[in-house]
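Deliverable D2.4 — example input (structure tokens):
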């Protein structure tokens, strides 16, 4: 799925988005929104990659759209919240949605929304929610920035709010939703939701980029994590926290992607793979190009990998089985892929 700014020259507050879904099997590019819809907020994708959710405006009215991209069905709810939508998340049931809605200066709230029941319920007030997501047992994970102090926790529909930690630098749930990974005082910590246990994975975590999120990759099933620093890559088991692969390598000017079975690394013009689910494996080359390679994504089952060269209007879909690359040219630049399945 790609996002495109419809009016990229405008002020960021005024820019609207267009949503496209590209099917590599038939090379069809589908336009998702209705005619006249204005979308200012990036859509979110369900954990099983079958459903997307986005907020839109049609003639000044608020709509929350939850669309199954495989079946083409969508549920469209109209709201009058007295504020405006800032963030979205979709639950594992592909029906329940969480939203951060601004209610005034320095005043936001997390709302629980059920598409099937047409229910909207405010769960938690806060200052500035930087992130929300669902955990597997149905609670909503959040990071709230309160006077420059980041607090992470999770809140249930009909139960008390649980705080994980404060003064954190970064936090995100694992894809399967049973754990949270966060950074505090340069320590990388794994928090188990079921028993509230905290496991220190790395005591002196120095990420490879300024954005900590770019130095962490998860397998789609949430059972493994790659930790990337400037001079090494660690493949870590979840939920034990054990390191079962350590690679000493210069990771500067590299891109990465992780599936349920493999870890991919691009380095200059070469593409490498580590099949980490098998013991005793090495990082080996699977592709060499005439230009530098940038990995954009792939599917969890290792069927294909999407990458770019220097031209951002072109993507290549590498077929792992047949070892061939399909070239696709678009009439707009592609910076990233929101999801691939």
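Example output (designed residues):
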């Amino acid at each position: 799925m790609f996002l495109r700014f419809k009016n990229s020259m405008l002020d960021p507050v005024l820019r609207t988005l267009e949503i496209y879904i590209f099917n590599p099997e038939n090379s069809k590019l589908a336009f998702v929104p209705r005619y006249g819809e204005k979308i200012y907020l990036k859509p979110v994708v369900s954990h099983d990659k079958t459903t997307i959710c986005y907020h839109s405006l049609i003639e000044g009215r608020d709509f929350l759209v939850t669309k199954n991209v495989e079946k083409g069905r969508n549920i469209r709810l109209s709201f009058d919240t007295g504020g405006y939508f800032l963030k979205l998340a979709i639950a594992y049931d592909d029906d329940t949605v969480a939203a951060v809605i601004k209610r005034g200066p320095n005043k936001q709230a997390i709302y629980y929304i059920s598409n099937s029941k047409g229910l909207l319920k405010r769960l938690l007030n806060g200052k500035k929610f930087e992130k929300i997501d669902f955990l597997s047992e149905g609670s909503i994970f959040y990071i709230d920035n309160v006077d420059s102090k980041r607090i992470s926790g999770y809140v249930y529909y009909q139960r008390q709010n649980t705080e994980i930690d404060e003064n954190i630098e970064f936090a995100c749930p694992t894809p399967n939703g049973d754990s949270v990974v966060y950074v505090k005082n340069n320590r990388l910590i794994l928090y188990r939701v079921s028993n509230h246990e905290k496991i220190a994975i790395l005591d002196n975590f120095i990420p490879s980029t300024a954005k900590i999120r770019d130095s962490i990759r998860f397998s789609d099933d949430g059972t493994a994590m790659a930790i990337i620093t400037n001079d090494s890559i660690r493949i870590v088991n979840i939920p034990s926290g054990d390191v079962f692969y350590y690679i000493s390598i210069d990771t500067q000017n590299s891109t990465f992607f992780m599936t349920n079975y493999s870890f991919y690394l691009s380095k200059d013009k070469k593409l490498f793979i580590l099949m980490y689910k098998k013991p005793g494996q090495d990082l080996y080359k699977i592709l060499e190009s005439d230009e530098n390679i940038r990995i954009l994504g792939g599917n969890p089952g290792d069927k294909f990998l999407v990458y770019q060269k220097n031209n951002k209007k072109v993507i290549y879909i590498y077929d792992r089985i047949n070892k061939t690359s399909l070239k696709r040219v678009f009439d707009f630049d592609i910076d990233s892929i929101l999801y691939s399945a």
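The mean pLDDT is 88.
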